[in-house]
Design a protein that fits this description.
The chain is an all-alpha fold and 316 residues long. The chain has a single domain, classed as Alpha Horseshoe (Serine Threonine Protein Phosphatase 5, Tetratricopeptide repeat), CATH 1.25.40.10. It has 18 helices and no strands. Helix 2 packs antiparallel against helix 3, helix 4 packs parallel to helix 6 and helix 16 packs parallel to helix 18. The radius of gyration is 19 Å and the shape is globular.
């Protein structure tokens, strides 16, 4: 169950920016900058639906799933017709399931499915909601409402709005069926169709990493960062891919530093996570002192981010 849930919601993190509300620019800027402690401080004394949704997202970013679900549920209860709030609650249920025992995880995964489906019902044109729902259908067993035909149906709908994301769904379906050649073809078709080819290249890089094709992964990352007009978060995702693939740690660190200095930070790639990844890379490269400084930088923005706190304890 934990593997299923983890894989289900990886794609969510890539779609965070696309589903972000802009009703409270001051607070959404804090989320984009990764200043989670400040965001929580500002939002904790508010009880309107928008503030509760933003608060849930701050907790979500820091992997505080219980608090994220509590705030997300409250936001939905106050404004049940808001598709974005249902989408975020679905993600929060899913990630909480990953840290739960199998019985509780099954119930939370079903709740996530229901919330994804409700988000799509309320906003049929929401590509992030349909992509996440398709990922659920791809990974979940039939007894929990999964099904590859259901995922393909979502791909058909997504194609009306974003052809590249439709190819991504079909690639994940093919991968689930162990049709790896077809999956690669779909991902390459997504690159050709994408408005943001850098992101599509990074999806291909992740596929290669999962398949153990690490040279191809590294080449795909290189293609992503050389795309003209790419968003700054492509550097964050490029650094993360190289870290996860255990390739070119200095290059990965350079990409993360470029992201942090870009002035174009986004909620889906918060600064505190970039500092945490830099700390992980410094550890891999044997520089524990530099790693400690990065973990401290991460915690200065998000003191509740437990992975950074544990990592700092390890290197001190």
């Amino acid at each position: 169950m934990k593997f299923l849930v983890t894989k289900l919601f990886v794609v969510s993190l890539l779609l965070v920016a696309a589903a972000t509300s802009v009703a409270d620019p001051a607070v959404t800027q804090l989320l984009s900058l990764g200043r989670m402690d400040e965001a929580v401080s500002v939002l904790s004394n508010r009880d309107d639906a928008e503030s509760l949704n933003l608060l849930s997202r701050a907790y979500f970013a820091m992997e505080q799933w219980d608090d994220a679900v509590k705030s997300g549920e409250r936001a939905v209860s106050l404004e049940p017709g808001n598709a974005n709030y249902h989408l975020w609650l679905a993600r929060e249920y899913g990630r909480k399931a990953g840290d739960s025992n199998p019985l509780a995880a099954a119930g939370l995964a079903r709740k996530a499915k229901n919330e994804f489906e409700r988000a799509v019902q309320l906003d049929p044109a929401s590509v992030p909601a349909r992509v996440d729902l398709a990922q659920y259908y791809t990974e979940a067993p039939a007894i929990m409402g999964g099904g590859l035909d259901k995922a393909r149906e979502q791909a058909e709908q997504v194609a009306k709005y974003d052809l590249a994301k439709s190819h991504l769904i079909l690639a994940r379906v093919a991968e689930k069926e162990k049709q790896y050649g077809e999956a690669e073809s779909q991902l390459r078709a997504g690159i050709k169709a994408a408005k943001n080819p850098a992101d599509a290249w990074l999806q291909l890089a992740a596929f290669y990493r999962d398949r153990g094709r690490l040279d191809d992964m590294q080449n795909a990352v290189r293609s992503a960062v050389t795309e003209p007009g790419k968003p700054a978060e492509s550097y964050f995702d490029a650094g993360k891919e190289l870290y996860l693939g255990s390739r070119d740690f200095p290059g990965a660190a350079d990409y993360l530093q470029k992201y942090l200095s870009s002035g174009q930070l986004v909620e889906g790639a918060p600064a505190f996570r970039a500092h945490y990844l830099l700390g992980q890379l410094d550890e891999k490269m044997g520089n524990r002192q530099a790693a400690a400084l990065e973990y401290q930088a991460s915690l200065s923005l998000a003191s509740g981010f437990v992975p950074a706190r544990k990592a700092l304890s390890h290197v001190q």
